[in-house]
Design goal:
The complex is a heterotrimer of chains A (419), B (270) and C (312). By secondary structure, chain B is mostly helical. In chain B, 77% of the residues lie in helices and 0% in strands. Chain B has helices spanning 2-33, 37-41, 51-61, 64-95, 99-111, 116-129, 136-140, 147-157, 162-170, 175-186, 188-204, 207-212, 221-229, 236-268. Chain B: Keywords: Cell membrane, Membrane, Transmembrane, Transmembrane helix, Transport.
Chain lengths: 419, 270, 312
């Protein structure tokens, strides 16, 4: 009896110490920036993982996006990696900047992760040479959200808005403005987001495939600038400043449409009075060669720090949840409106939901289809610099300066900035 | 006499307009904290009924009590240390005047022109090497020697009756005791004014705490505010409640010490 | 009462030892105490201001991306002159300086002399109201201003309602109006702060001077320019220098209200330093060079202002 007890105690003790050696309790720290979106989603991912691996927990620190980028720069630049988290969220436009400015700071994962299950444009963003860093997260696949009631007042049906060009969009906008007094869209002259949407929809960017500045002779960019000018001049664009005001034009019913990334869905739906009045059509297209009806705006991915003590655990966690767990993608879609860039997710039931806010349209199924068709471009590492150079010339453009001159100036400033 | 009345009227009109312009944003803040985001965006100017809802939402998103504790701890401690160290220096420069010390003093004044942006990266590296990152101590340390407060105390010490020091010396009182037992009591209102200025600066600090603090448990109210306002779907009702919460303590400190503040400022500009 | 005592005391022969500084022991005692009192602050400033700024001087001789840098010597200075954004930021900073600082100083002076009028009713209330803006945190007040000055915001709504304007003003989206908004914001935040300095200084002006002037029939406006302003010269100089330095380093407001836009119309030097370090592909060396430009101009302007004050 006593013998058995002693044996039992010894066994338990050995068991404990073994367990301790094999899998110590690990807490993975994560930086993300939106409490209602990526922070909440990462928390959900963490809970799912902990349920299966009780020795690993995930703790998400919520910091404003600008602040997060700044802290990451400060820590990496000073070489003080101790306070860095294990996993950090980086916007796709910035990925190359961090990867190239701080070589060796992030963990390459191409040996572990099957990248073929993600939208190809996302994987490109995180590739340098043969190495792939990071796990693709949400996509910014774009669509044209519009108010069916306002457009009906102006005499347009859903068919009139399906697969249109931007030129047609402006024509429609003029009619809408004339008949209803509302603007067709809100536009922030500080934010070249819409121009980027237009450019990428034609497979073009500020930089060519090799990363060289491509502005002066960029036909897609030229057409985009002309369109922005025409929108502003014709009075169909309502000027806004900053994110909230731009979203505000939609919620308060001042504009008839908003063309942007799918992540806007939650904001569009935030005014319940407008339920049933919205629909989503494909992004309007340019007329240049290579023009398509899909594009992307924003989107971000998870990266693991090389300095992390829990590097392997972090990669294992991301790999298990983000590249395999279809149910997880259904849950974050339903709860948070997040459309992942994981291609398998679209097969799930949640994507087939008919959304009452959009009068029964299966919006997520549409977005999921569009995601796979987003044209690949090389964002390079200088998107912010290019944006700044572009924004600096927009007033001149709107005041009537010739587009070619404007393009010339943008190219000059950009080249100076990135020397 | 008529002209006199007219100019009186003009005076009151001018002051009333200025007061209105100064106070309106506070009114807007209070009103907005009781409204929903939709109402705020549509410019609603009357009080709504969403205050409790906004406050509850804010409190579920962040641990308000903890954030408040952190901000107060940093503000109070760094204010106390700043007052001690900087008033000592202001006193020292004025009471023990010497050519060498005046040279050092002028050099100190010059450092006021250095923009913080220029110091940020080296300072961060220093804190990292000293193993102080992600501590409240690192937030306070670089702010303790405030050149502006040194300057302020030196100015005020100029009108401090030096005979008191001489009298105490004749009685054989030690120098540091003169500072503590003679200088402090006389300069009470100067300290009050400095307390308000330093407390407000510290409470309102943003950029440096942002860089140094990493853990959520250590964050201050301004970091939380800026984080809230940069969400994909910012909830303005919640943000406005946050701004109210962030403003109340500085207001309270100001109201509590207003009398001494005015008296203290008067001493500084003789 | 106490002043007469102190006058007697100070006219009395002082401690004889103090008169003869060469007399060793007191001099040493004096010096040791002097350095002890100022030592803490001086050491901290040296550690947290002087050392980092020298460090950043070394940085300014380098250029590159993030941690991939090379020594470029004075290359960054050459780059400054060809950098349109830098030139824009510099000229914006000077526009803010030339318009905002004098306007704010005048306004604070006017307000404080109004508040100093004898027999003014509600003096405390007015003073409190006008001072109140400077207790707000920069983050909080920037959020407030952004919301008030938005296109649909309460400011446009009120102006439209009163009929002062017929179309909403694009406060934050037009390059000209964005500058105006920033100037209004800074003026709102800091006028009361400066006013308190003037008010305090005015308490020290002998009331009988004004009494005499009034008996002579000198009007209020003349009193302001010929009595108040000259007597307050040291304080005005001090606040001007402080405001100048503040404007040269202008960052928080711009960062939180316009982020330097639209079209760099509110870009300031500090904002540009921030962008170069934390927004663009980080070039800390070039950023350090730009920050030295601020130090340079601040020093020159402060010197000029002190010199002007001395000449007058």
């Amino acid at each position: 009896m006593t013998h058995a007890m002693v044996k039992g105690i010894v066994a338990t003790a050995v068991g404990f110490s073994m367990a301790g050696a094999v899998a110590q309790a690990t807490e993975l720290s994560v930086w993300a920036w939106d409490p209602n979106f990526n922070v909440a989603i990462m928390n959900e991912a963490g809970e799912r993982y902990t349920a299966m691996h009780s020795d690993v927990t995930v703790k998400v620190e919520d910091t404003a996006k600008d602040s997060l980028e700044q802290k990451l720069h400060t820590s990496l630049a000073s070489g003080m990696t101790k306070t860095l988290p294990d996993i950090v969220l980086i916007e796709d436009y910035n990925a190359q900047k961090y990867l190239q400015a701080y070589p060796g700071a992030f963990a390459a994962m191409e040996k572990v992760v099957d990248y073929s299950s993600f939208a190809p444009y996302k994987v490109d963003v995180m590739t340098i040479g043969d190495s792939v860093y990071g796990i693709p997260f949400d996509t910014g696949v774009t669509g044209m959200y519009y108010r069916t009631d306002i457009l009906a007042d102006a005499g347009f049906t859903a068919e009139d808005l399906q697969d249109i060009t931007w030129e047609r969009f402006i024509e429609i906008g003029k009619v809408v403005k004339e008949k209803t007094g509302k603007e067709m869209l809100g536009n922030d002259p500080n934010d070249p987001g819409l121009i980027r949407v237009m450019m990428q929809s034609a497979g073009s960017w500020y930089f060519d495939k090799d990363g060289n500045v491509d502005i002066k002779n960029n036909a897609a960019l030229k057409e985009s600038l002309e369109l922005i000018r025409d929108m502003t001049k014709s009075g169909i664009a309502r000027p806004t400043m900053g994110w909230s005001e731009w979203v505000g034009t939609v919620n308060s019913g001042q504009v008839a449409s908003i063309t942007t990334g799918v992540w806007i869905t939650g904001s569009v739906k935030s005014n319940p009075d407008q339920s049933g009045l919205w629909a989503v059509a494909p992004t309007p297209r340019l007329t240049v060669e290579g023009a398509t009806q899909t594009s992307n705006l924003g989107g971000s991915s998870w990266y693991v720090l090389n300095s992390s003590e829990n590097k392997d655990a972090a990669i294992a966690f991301l790999n298990e949840i983000y590249t395999q767990d279809k149910e997880f993608y259904q849950k974050i879609l339903v709860d948070r409106g997040a459309v992942g860039s994981y291609l398998g997710a679209g097969e799930g039931a949640a994507y087939q939901t008919e959304d009452a806010f959009f009068a029964g349209q299966k919006v997520y199924s549409d977005f999921s289809d569009w995601t796979a068709q987003i044209p690949k471009v090389n964002y390079g590492m200088y998107t912010y610099e290019a944006d700044a150079a572009l924004s600096a010339q927009l007033p001149a453009l709107l005041q009537g300066t010739d587009v070619d001159t404007v393009l010339e100036r943008i190219e000059q400033q950009l080249k100076n900035q990135i020397q | 006499m008529n002209k006199h009345k007219f100019s009186r009227l003009a005076l009151y009109v001018f002051l009333s307009i200025s007061a209105f312009v100064s106070l309106f944003p506070f009114y807007w803040m209070l009103v907005s904290s009781t409204n929903s985001t939709a109402d705020i965006n549509s410019g609603k100017l009357s009080f709504g009924s969403s205050l409790m809802e906004n406050l509850t939402k804010l409190n579920t998103q962040v641990d308000l009590g903890l954030v408040f504790y952190n901000t107060s701890k940093i503000a109070i401690l760094s204010t106390v240390f700043t007052l001690i160290i900087s008033s000592m220096a202001g006193y020292g420069f004025e009471v023990y005047k010497s050519r060498n010390r005046d040279k050092v003093y002028n050099a100190l004044l010059l450092t006021m022109m250095i923009p913080f942006a220029a110091l940020m990266i080296p300072l961060f590296t220093m804190m990292a090497k000293a193993n102080l990152l992600d501590t409240h101590f690192a937030v306070m340390l670089p702010t303790i020697a405030s050149v502006f407060i040194v300057f302020y105390f030196r100015q005020c010490t100029k009108v401090f009756p030096k005979e008191l020091i001489d009298a105490a010396r004749v009685d054989g009182v030690k120098e540091w005791r003169i500072f503590v037992f003679v200088y402090w009591p006389v300069m009470r209102s100067t300290y009050a004014a400095a307390f308000i200025i330093v407390f407000m600066t510290s409470w309102n600090a943003f950029l440096w705490p942002l860089i140094v603090l990493q853990s959520a448990e250590l964050k201050t109210i301004n970091l939380v505010l800026s984080s809230l306002s940069s969400a994909y779907f910012p909830d303005f009702g919640v943000i406005m409640v946050g701004t109210v919460v962030a403003t109340i303590p500085t207001l309270a400190v100001f109201f509590a010490m207003q009398k001494q503040f005015v008296a203290g400022m008067t001493g500084s500009v003789k | 009462m106490s002043s007469s005592v102190s006058q007697q005391l100070s006219s009395a022969p002082e401690n004889p030892k103090k008169k003869q500084g060469s007399h060793g022991s007191f001099h040493r005692f004096y010096d040791i105490n002097g350095w002890t009192f100022v030592g803490g602050a001086v050491a901290l400033v040296a550690l947290f201001m002087i050392y980092p700024i020298l460090n950043s001087l070394w940085l300014s001789l380098h250029s590159g991306r993030g941690i991939v840098t090379e020594f470029v010597g004075f290359g960054n200075i050459t780059r400054l002159f060809n950098d349109p954004v830098f030139i824009k930021a510099l000229s914006n900073t000077f526009i803010f300086l030339i318009i905002q600082v004098p306007a704010m100083i005048l306004l604070s002076l006017a307000l404080s002399s109004c508040l100093n009028t004898p027999n003014l009713r509600f003096r405390g209330l007015f003073r409190l109201a006008i001072f109140l803006p400077c207790v707000t945190s920069l983050v909080a007040y920037s959020i407030l201003f952004k919301s008030m000055f938005s296109y649909e915001g309460i400011i446009n709504a009120s102006l439209l309602w009163t009929g002062i304007i017929s179309d909403p003003i694009p406060w934050l989206t037009d390059p000209f109006w964005a500058k105006v908004t920033i100037i209004l914001a800074i003026t709102w935040r800091w006028t009361g702060y400066n006013m308190i300095f003037y008010l305090s200084a005015m308490q020290n002006i002998d009331k009988s001077i004004y009494e005499a002037a009034r008996l002579e029939g000198v009007g209020a406006i003349k009193q302001f320019f010929y009595i108040t302003v000259p007597l307050l010269k040291p304080v005005i100089l001090f606040t001007t220098v402080m405001s100048t330095i503040g404007t040269l380093q202008l960052f928080d407001e711009v960062m939180n209200i316009t982020q330097g836009g639209p079209a760099d119309s509110t870009m300031t030097l500090s904002m540009y330093i921030y962008n170069l370090s934390f927004k663009f592909v980080p070039n800390f060396g070039y950023a350090a060079t730009v920050s030295y430009v601020i130090v340079f101009f601040a020093a020159i302007l402060a010197l000029l202002q002190f010199k002007m004050a001395k000449d007058k």
